[in-house]
Amino acid sequence: MKALHIAATGMKAQELNVEVISNNVANMRTTGFKKQRADFQDLLYQNLRRMGTETSEAGTIVPTGIQIGSGVKLASTARIMSQGSLEQTSKELDVAIRGEGFFQIDLPDGTTAYSRDGSFERDANGQLVTVDGYTINPGITIPENTQDITISNTGVVQGVDQGGNTVQLGQLQLARFVNKAGLEAIGDNLFLETDASGAAENGNPGDQGFGSVQQYFLEMANVDAVTEIADLISAQRAYEMNSQIIQAADEMYSTTTNLR
């Protein structure tokens, strides 16, 4: 009886589904987080009677056949790259992206990572860095005693020096990808380029195909609590139904064993 194995694959699939949902819920307040969705595929089929085979010399054929499936498997955990809501803050170095694009981050090993998290800080040298101290690319340095820092929607960073003059400090740039869902998440709100995502295309905020940036805002996670709860309930019920199938199969085995 294959029902035990088939139902077991169903339980395992829903267990993984709950893990994906739990990670989404855990990151509801993570800046720039993009939720995931578990996608499933059916497993191979056993053909007991193949459809389309001839059943007589007159050319009659089997219209549907007999196929027995062997369960389900996890196919992918697709990342949903939709826009998250923007939340206003009081920090002048908080920047949100509205539309397409990622900030470029230089990692210590020389790798370029990408992020939607625009909660920037200044390090001891005045460089614009992430909360982990990684510099953004291209680098922007804000001299000491610079006041009234402004970041335009097109990414131009300006400030007022000690003499009261407005000076341009740098230009924020964004990167976009043909398949942004193909980026590899490595934690710390960072993604890496992959063969699936395609090569990064760089540009300034507001350029054609790129989003704009918004100072004093941060992009929140695109996780909807109600949707996640509904998905969690569906996963729980599917898990329960598969467990009941295992119990039913076990009872059938028990009945067969007790036959005399």
UniProtKB/TrEMBL annotation:
Task: Determine if Protein biosynthesis is one of this entry's keywords.
Answer: no
Question: Under what name is this protein listed?
Answer: Flagellar basal-body rod protein FlgG
Q: Which UniProt keywords apply?
A: Bacterial flagellum, Cell projection, Cilium, Flagellum
Q: Which residues form the signal peptide?
A: none
Q: Where is the Flagellar basal body rod protein N-terminal domain?
A: 5-34
Gene transcribed to yield this protein = flgG
Q: Where is the Flagellar basal-body/hook protein C-terminal domain?
A: 214-259
Q: Its principal location?
A: other
Q: Where in the cell is it found?
A: Bacterial flagellum basal body
SUBUNIT field:
The basal body constitutes a major portion of the flagellar organelle and consists of four rings (L,P,S, and M) mounted on a central rod. The rod consists of about 26 subunits of FlgG in the distal portion, and FlgB, FlgC and FlgF are thought to build up the proximal portion of the rod with about 6 subunits each.
Q: Which InterPro entries match?
A: Flag_bb_rod_N (IPR001444), Flagellar_basal_body_rod_CS (IPR019776), Flagellar_FlgE/F/G (IPR020013), Flg_bb/hook_C_dom (IPR010930), FlgE/F/G-like (IPR037925), FlgG_G_neg (IPR012834), LlgE_F_G-like_D1 (IPR053967)
Q: Name one Pfam family in it.
A: Flg_bbr_C
SUPFAM superfamilies per the UniProt record, alphabetical: Flagellar hook protein flgE (SSF117143)
Print the organism lineage.
Bacteria, Pseudomonadati, Pseudomonadota, Alphaproteobacteria, Hyphomicrobiales
> What family, per the record?
Belongs to the flagella basal body rod proteins family.
Keyword Mitochondrion carried by entry? no
Q: Which NCBIfam families match?
A: FlgEFG_subfam, flgG_G_neg
Looking at the record, the residues that make up the Flagellar hook protein FlgE/F/G-like D1 domain are 96-158
